[in-house]
């Protein structure tokens, strides 16, 4: 379980002036659950992800992993404890095969069952294990290899920043199925930052972030219901807000 307790983040802007990026963020992330963080651009989602990863040190509050205070730890230490970030795509070193990436991700001391990992992300091991990761890989294939490498690391917390970016519709469908299956089998806490309704549908809980704060932690049913209301009940679609469960212009 990962807990953020009253976390604040102040950074210097280009002119060296302090800017408050996050304020009083309190959030409990349970294992085996998918949290989708969403909200307006510039609201602070990626900053929360970076604070979780240890890329930014919080300037206020505490972060606990399974009860241990990790607030002062940097990115390497947190990675060692099992907090990982999914990059846009896995590294493409010349000659590196899918099996090498999975072995590298698992680390030198761990046996890794690459076939099972690839199966779990919907790829046939026979076709992929010895394939070199090069330009012939589609965005969706790369994304799934990346998720398999996250599984190989057996992370406690995995953060994905807009995993849908650059993925075609067909691969996107597969990607959502992959996420759906993941938390049935693995204990990993998954945090996905996304603006996509179809990703929202994967959430056990939706975390709404705006203006550097968490405005609500809620169910996908509530958010999806609000989106539907915006679509159906309001004539002035672009200027609608939800008040007391009703769309108002
Ligand atoms: N290193 C930094 N220095 C100063 N300001 C920053 C820094 N990083 C982020 N910010 C500011 O913090 C605010 C939150 O940014 P953040 O990237 O966390 O938002 P976001 O919700 O992820 O946005 P988006 O949906 O557009 O990706 C923005 O106003 C951004 O300009």
Automatic annotation (TrEMBL):
Domain (ABC transporter) ranges: 2-236
Keywords: ATP-binding, Nucleotide-binding, Transport
InterPro entries in the record: AAA+_ATPase, ABC_AA/LPS_Transport, ABC_transporter-like_ATP-bd, ABC_transporter-like_CS, P-loop_NTPase
GO MF terms, alphabetically ordered: ATP binding; ATP hydrolysis activity
Cellular component annotations (GO), alphabetically ordered: plasma membrane
SMART domains the UniProt entry points to: AAA
A Pfam family it matches: ABC_tran
Name of the protein in question: ATP-binding cassette domain-containing protein
Lineage, opening ranks: Bacteria, Bacillati, Bacillota, Clostridia, Eubacteriales
């Amino acid at each position: 379980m990962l807990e953020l307790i009253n976390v604040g983040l102040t950074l210097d802007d280009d002119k060296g002036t302090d800017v408050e990026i996050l304020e009083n963020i309190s959030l409990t992330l349970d294992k085996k659950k998918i949290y989708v963080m969403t909200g307006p651009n510039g609201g602070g989602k990626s900053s929360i992800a970076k604070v979780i990863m240890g890329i930014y040190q919080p300037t206020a509050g505490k972060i606990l992993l399974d009860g241990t205070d990790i607030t002062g730890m940097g990115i390497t230490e947190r990675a060692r404890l099992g907090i990982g970030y999914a990059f846009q795509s896995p590294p493409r070193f010349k000659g590196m095969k899918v099996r090498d990436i999975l072995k590298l991700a698992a680390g030198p001391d761990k046996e890794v069952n690459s076939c099972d990992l690839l199966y779990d992300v919907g790829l046939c091991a026979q076709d992929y294990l010895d394939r070199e990761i090069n330009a012939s890989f589609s965005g969706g294939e790369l994304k799934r290899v990346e998720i398999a490498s996250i599984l190989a690391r057996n992370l406690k917390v995995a953060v994905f920043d807009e995993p849908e970016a650059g993925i075609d519709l067909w691969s996107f469908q597969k990607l959502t199925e992959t996420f759906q299956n993941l938390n049935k089998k693995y204990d990993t806490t998954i945090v996905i930052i996304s603006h996509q309704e179809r990703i929202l549908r994967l959430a056990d809980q939706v975390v709404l972030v705006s203006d550097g704060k968490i405005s609500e932690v809620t169910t996908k049913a509530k958010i999806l219901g609000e989106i539907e209301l915006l679509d159906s009940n309001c004539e002035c679609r672009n200027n609608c807000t939800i008040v007391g469960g009703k769309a108002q212009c």
